[in-house]
Amino acid sequence: MTENSPLQKYYRQPAIYLKLPSGGKYYSPEVFTPTETGELPVLPMTVKDELAFKTPDALINGQSTVDVIKSCIPNIKDPWQMVNYDTDAVLLAIRIASYGETMTISYNVPITGERQDGALNLPALLEDLGKVEIKDKIKTASGFELEVEPLTYKNLTKLQIANFEQQKIVGSLQSSALTEQDKSTAFQKSFDIINKVNFSLMLDSIKQITTPDGVTVDNRQHILDFCNNADSKIVNEIEEKLSEIRVQAQVPPMRVKATDEQIKSGVPTSFNVPVTFDNSNFFG
User: Fold this and answer.
1) pLDDT tens across 57-75, in order?
2) Burial 25-45 (b: 16+ CB within 10 A, else e)
3) At CB < 8 A and 24+ separation, what contacts does 221-229 make?
4) Residue 280, phi then psi, degrees to nearest 5
5) What are the tens digits of pLDDT across the range 237-271?
């Protein structure tokens, strides 16, 4: 940055302040710099940031999102270690700081398939996320108690890449000249990769386990052995509980009311529309 430039007064300034749903609880000093107020300044995106978000490969591998977060919220020094509870709030805050308080999302109406737009009140969503009380313990019906470790953005990107690669493989196999046996083998290999990633994420999410008879285990190898050898009903129940707790502080779906004409066509009186942040709706 050039010193004493007369243009410095026109540089971007914080547009809003963000309270992380996690409160910064899970971060080390190398990852996160807290503030006295607990609120983080959020800068609008630069032109460079916008270009980063429009690079397909960088979006898939997560690098563009990481770069933009570092640029717009400097207090988050290592966004790869940002926990999943904070992801939606961070993206919401950057969107508000850069483009304003509303965002239009397009969706298909159930039954009719009609394309329709809806407007989101982003500050209201952000305020609700800031009020979420994060829970990091779960108890299963079989009597196990687990202390949960949140997933990082790096963990989630690993899953996103695996899913993307699987979709590419499935798409290419459907149009290939391979025999049905070879296709079946390739499909199985693809699904095995996804299963391994999901299993790895489950292990990453378990900080410690307390057994029904009161023994607490935090040894990683013991937890791995348990997940590999326990009754599938127990492990599946743990996975379900982990899935439930991971959606804490995620933006809820938008509830849409159908018109009278749509209801006459068989559309439900109201229906949910998932709210996601992607290249098609993130920019103003």
Assistant:
1) 666 788 888 999 999 999 9
2) ebbeeebbeeeeeebbbbbbb
3) 227/199, 227/202, 227/203
4) -80, -25
5) 999 999 999 889 999 999 999 999 999 999 999 99
